[in-house]
């Protein structure tokens, strides 16, 4: 069974630029999560989708971050414009349904200069 | 609100020695508890979980954790570590009503020396 796929694996941009990350969850998984992991900290949930609807985006900085999950499968997370403090690893995870075990992708390491 | 505290940011240990990684949580309601492991340049992998039943849970590679409700702890232990156990370990919790929202601790870097 294929795992959660993410791309790109690494991205370096300058502040005020835009960036987008892509996630392909495990086939059949209804729930998709985006986490932000800053160096030295545990992952923090940014947004949770159930199929193509948003369940929780309470910790998403909506002035610069946006996410969508078209057709309830793939998802993209965008930052526009990026700030230095956005440097982190962005993890995507999926689960069969809410409350089930979450499977994580390898992450995208973002460096904002 | 719930929170998770991992009491040690780094734990160095020699190969074949025992290790304990400490985790405490705060929550006023029933919780589910997890330990995840993250090897360098890889995503998080579930190591073990406590949902209900026996308070002692085990993983396939020799780790175990015990849910202690009175002390609100879920410490991870292994009686004899290997070089390959070097990784970062995260404790996580979610309430049964939070629909899958995990709250993670800060992580503990376990380094096993030969």
Keywords summarizing the entry:
heterodimer, A: 113 residues, mainly beta, seven-stranded mixed beta sheet, four-stranded antiparallel beta sheet, 11 strands, 0% helix, 49% strand, globular, B: 114 residues, six-stranded mixed beta sheet, 12 strands
The total beta strand count of chain B reads 12
Greatest interface and its participating residue counts? A-B, 25 and 23 residues
The total count of helices of chain B amounts to: 0
What coarse outline of chain A follows from CA principal-axis ratios?
Answer: globular
Helix fraction of chain B, binned, reads under 10%
Indicate the low-confidence ranges of chain A by residue numbers.
Answer: none
Fraction of helical residues of chain A: under 10%
Would you kindly provide a written description of the structure presented here, covering whatever features stand out?
The complex is a heterodimer of chains A (113) and B (114). In chain A, strands 2, 4, 5, 6, 9, 10 and 11 form a seven-stranded mixed β-sheet that branches. In chain A, strands 1-3-8-7 form a four-stranded antiparallel β-sheet, with no helix packed on it. Chain A is mainly β and 113 residues long. In chain A, 0% of the residues lie in helices and 49% in strands. Chain B has 114 residues and is mainly beta. Helices cover 0% and strands 54% of the residues of chain B. The A-B interface holds A 4, 31, 33, 40-45, 48, 55-56, 91, 93, 95, 98-107 and B 4, 6, 9, 36, 41-46, 49, 90, 92, 94, 96, 99-102, 104-107.
């Amino acid at each position: 069974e294929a795992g959660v796929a993410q791309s790109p694996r690494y991205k370096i941009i300058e502040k005020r630029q835009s960036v987008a990350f892509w996630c392909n969850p495990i086939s059949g998984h209804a729930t998709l999560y985006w986490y932000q992991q800053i160096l030295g900290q545990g992952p923090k949930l940014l947004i949770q989708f159930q199929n193509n609807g948003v369940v929780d985006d309470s910790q998403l900085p909506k002035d610069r971050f946006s996410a969508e999950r078209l057709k309830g499968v793939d998802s993209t997370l965008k930052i526009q414009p990026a700030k230095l403090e956005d440097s982190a690893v962005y993890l995507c995870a999926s689960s069969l349904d809410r409350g089930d075990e979450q499977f994580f992708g390898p992450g995208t390491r973002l460096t904002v200069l | 609100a719930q929170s998770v505290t991992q009491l040690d940011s780094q734990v160095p240990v020699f190969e074949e020695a025992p290790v304990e990684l400490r985790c405490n949580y705060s929550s006023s309601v029933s919780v589910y508890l997890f330990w995840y492991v993250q090897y360098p340049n890889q995503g998080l992998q579930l190591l073990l979980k406590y949902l209900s039943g026996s308070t002692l849970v085990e993983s396939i590679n020799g780790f175990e954790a015990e849910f202690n409700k009175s002390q609100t702890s879920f410490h991870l232990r292994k009686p004899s570590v290997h070089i390959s156990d070097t990784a970062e370990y995260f404790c996580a919790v979610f309430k049964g009503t939070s629909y899958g929202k995990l709250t993670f601790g800060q992580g503990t870097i376990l380094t096993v020396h030969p």
